[in-house]
Design brief:
The complex is a heterodimer of chains A (about 110) and B (about 120). Chain A is an all-beta fold and about 110 residues long. The termini of chain A are far apart. By secondary structure, chain B is mainly beta. In chain B, the strands form two sheets. In chain B, strands 2, 4, 5, 6, 9, 10 and 11 form a seven-stranded mixed β-sheet that branches. In chain B, strand 4 and strand 5 form a beta hairpin. Classes of the chains: A mainly beta (about 110), B mainly beta (about 120). At the A-B interface, strand 5 and strand 10 of A face strand 4, strand 5 and strand 10 of B.
């Protein structure tokens, strides 16, 4: 089965950098996703990693180490609007149809002035 | 613009009643998913479908059913609503097999269901 762990809450200061970690255990791995979810809204896709290394998208970067079962999401130049929950999700490898996601419980990030 | 919609957005019902939540997407995606989101549990998969007439159970499927009669819709039915099914329900869709390497899921706005 799958097990995904991430911190429940984090606090950071506007303009700073914050790193949100995610560790996972899986019987079959076919990619790791990060989603952002503002309170009362739907999750929205942020990033995807399937190979080891860093993927950069503007202020957001995501890193993956498959051998360690570890990923992090790095948010730079924090803005107040970055206050949200950040969800780590692993895609299971089911052979031909490989699109089922298992989500962690999410990390609630509060950005303070 | 293509989109994914859910209805109703809010629903209050009584224990024992049958409830159906609608999910409609206009992207022509093959894959559709239903999740529930509760504090302390995150998003948990209820049922999913990889195409017309295909349905599969997720990790929390007891008390729920789905049917897929066309590409656009995947309604979720609670056969006999229970208070434990009070939750926020999200529908999602993704394109397979041609969605690119990430093939990310796109989420609907959610339905807040209260069972009294």
């Amino acid at each position: 089965g799958q097990n995904i762990d991430q911190p429940t809450e984090m606090t950071a200061t506007e303009g700073a950098i914050v790193q949100i970690n995610c560790t996972y255990q899986t019987s079959g791995f076919n990619g790791l996703f990060w989603y952002q979810q503002h309170a009362g809204e739907a999750p929205t896709f942020l990033s995807y990693n399937v190979l080891d290394g860093l993927e950069e998208k503007g202020r957001f970067s995501s890193f993956l180490s498959r051998s360690k079962g570890y990923s992090y999401l790095l948010l730079k130049e924090l803005q107040m609007k970055d206050s949200a929950s950040y969800l780590c999700a692993v895609r299971e490898n089911e052979g031909g149809a490989t699109n089922k996601l298992i989500f962690g419980t999410g990390t609630l990030l509060a950005v303070q002035p | 613009d293509a989109e994914i919609t859910q209805s109703p957005r809010h629903k209050i019902t009584e224990t024992g009643r049958q409830v159906t939540l609608a999910c409609h997407q206009t992207w022509n995606h093959n894959n559709m998913f239903w999740y529930r989101q509760d504090l302390g549990h995150g998003l948990r998969l209820i049922h999913y479908s990889y195409g017309v007439h295909d349905t599969n159970k997720g990790e929390v499927s007891d008390g729920y059913s789905v049917s897929r009669s066309n590409t656009e819709d995947l309604p979720l039915t609670l056969e006999s609503a229970a208070s434990s099914q009070t939750s926020v329900y999200f529908c999602a869709s993704s394109e397979f097999p041609s969605g690119g390497p990430s093939n990310e899921q796109f989420f609907g706005p959610g339905t807040r269901l209260t069972v009294l």
